[in-house]
Amino acid sequence: MITQTQIPNLTQKELILTLIKADMRNVKLIQGLEHAGALVEHFYSDLSVVILKLIGFEDAERTDELYALYDTKMHALVDVSVEVFREKLPYLAVDFYNELLLLKISRQ
To answer: What is the pTM of this model?
Structure first.
């Protein structure tokens, strides 16, 4: 029998931060697999689309330039050691969230 798990009531910010952390973990894992020689091109999560929509970027605002900025920030995680990454993940996610919010506000 399959039971339904209770999904916690998250605020919009908590949901976005949860998704950012999940995307960061995914990117970090993929980078490690790629470093080990695995072919990883089909394993990216594409959570950026959902995250940017939830932050409030309209379709026309979600340009290739915006996705390139997002990807650059994510791929910078390669320079963060696994130990530091695990310890600082909540702070990295909040910093990135704030950066995206400021970018959204500056475009209004």
So the answer is: 0.87
